[in-house]
Amino acid sequence: MVAPRVYEAMSKPIVGYLDPYCFQVIEEIQDELRKVFGTRNEITFPISGTGSAGMETAVANFAEPGEKCAVFVNGFFSERICEMARRQGAQVVRLEKPWGEVFSDAEAREFIHREKPRIVAYVQAETSTGAFQPGNAICQAAHDADALVIADCVTSLGAAPVEVDATGIDIAYSCSQKGLSCPPGISPATVSPRAWERLGKRTRPVQSWYLDLKLLEGYYKGHKYHHTVPISMLYAVHEGLALIEEEGLEQRFARHRRNHLMLVSALEKLGLRMHVDEGHRLWMLNTPRVPEGVDDAKVRKRLLDEYGIEILGGFGPLAGKVFRIGLMGSSSTEENVKLLIDALEKALAAESAQGVAEK
User: Fold this and answer.
1) Per-residue pLDDT at 359 exceeds 80
2) The dihedral sign for the CA sequence 172, 178, 180, 183
3) pLDDT digits (tens, 9 = 90+) for 109-153
4) What digits encode the pLDDT tens for the residues 318-342?
5) Is 343:304 a contact under the CB 8 Å cutoff?
6) Does the structural domain 249-358 have CATH classification 3.40.50.620?
7) Across all residues in the chain, what is the average pLDDT?
8) How would you write the chain as a 3-class SS string?
9) Is the pLDDT of residue 356 over 90?
10) What is the model's pLDDT at position 354?
């Protein structure tokens, strides 16, 4: 859900992409993004594009042709990283786990030490499964191998600690429509000094002109024309970050965790089991398993048609097996948890009754 104040901010008059006020907004966004990312990185930009643009920015700038890119694959979006790296001509090597499981520290170290890649990529908060992947061991092993680490923080930014610097992440990206409670259209990204130095030594031009970080630096820092930024979306992100600042990061994280635990407890009372093991679950994206014999699409359609509540189903190997329930940003409230549980209980009961009647 988009915060009401964000909608209001988007109605402000549009200025030009080289207007001093535009750059003032961008600089304030950069300052606030550093806090939410948990970083002091100078290179922290609001990339024009959705979260996939952030992913492609990270991959296109740092996964060079012929170089080895090691990816921890345990969900849909780690698969997307693999495909983007392959299209860049990188040599992709994979360590795989079933969707919903996470990698242990020992598995991470062994994989990286064995492969000795130039780039390592993982998804911190996997939207397709509801699993959180710790990154400390991944980053430490990667740095021991002189590799850079890319982390997908699309679902975690603004809703849970990302801790870029403390974890050792070199390149992180996210989106505007989840934890920041804004419409889709901006992909926050941050790059460590170590990664920026590596990029400066690159001899091949970055394949993507639009997402070339060196060219983007010329705009964001040098105020030289590169592309027309979506100024209304910048207003939105600016306001979304102001809301986070007012609430306080620790309070915001605690709210997401509290509502997640409330939801899980209520789901379990309905007889639903969580797909991801306790201790590895996301606070903002919850994946209860679909009960045996229940058609998840019919339940979700009933929720939408009768109660105006939209939740998503699984895809890939989890298609028909899990519900995906978002509790992100301004939508993560106790009231919404109660509203959903009441509607879900009725929808499941109605589907069960209809199934019995049809037999």
Assistant:
1) no
2) positive
3) 999 999 999 999 999 999 999 999 999 999 999 999 999 999 999
4) 999 999 999 999 999 999 999 999 9
5) no
6) no
7) 96
8) CCCHHHHHHHCCCCCCCCCHHHHHHHHHHHHHHHHHHCCCCCEEEEEECCHHHHHHHHHHHHCCCCCEEEEEECCHHHHHHHHHHHHCCCEEEEEECCECECCCHHHHHHHHHHHCCCEEEEECEECCCCEECCCHHHHHHHHHCCCEEEEECCCCCCCCCCCHHHHCCCEEECCCCCCCCCCCCEEEEEECHHHHHHHHCCCCCCCCCCCCHHHHHHHHCCCCCCCCCCHHHHHHHHHHHHHHHHHCHHHHHHHHHHHHHHHHHHHHHCCCCECCCCCCECCCEECEECCCCCCHHHHHHHHHHHHCCCCEECCHHHCCCEEEEECCHHHCCHHHHHHHHHHHHHHHHHHHHHHHHHC
9) no
10) 72
In angstroms, the CA 286 to CA 129 distance is: 8
* Tokens 């700038």 belong to residue: 61
- Residue 358 is predicted with a pLDDT of 63
- Give the predicted TM-score (pTM) of the model: 0.96
- The reply to whether CATH 3.40.640.10 applies to domain 4-246 is yes
> In whole angstroms, what is the distance from residue 160 CA to residue 108 CA?
22
pLDDT tens digits, one per residue of 250-290: 999 999 999 999 999 999 999 999 999 999 999 999 999 99
Q: Where are the domains of the chain?
A: 4-246, 249-358
Six-digit token pair at 9? 């901010």
Query: Backbone dihedral region of 116: left (phi > 0), alpha (psi from -120 to 50 degrees) or beta?
Result: left
Q: How many other C-beta atoms are found inside a 10 Å radius of the C-beta of residue 200?
A: 8
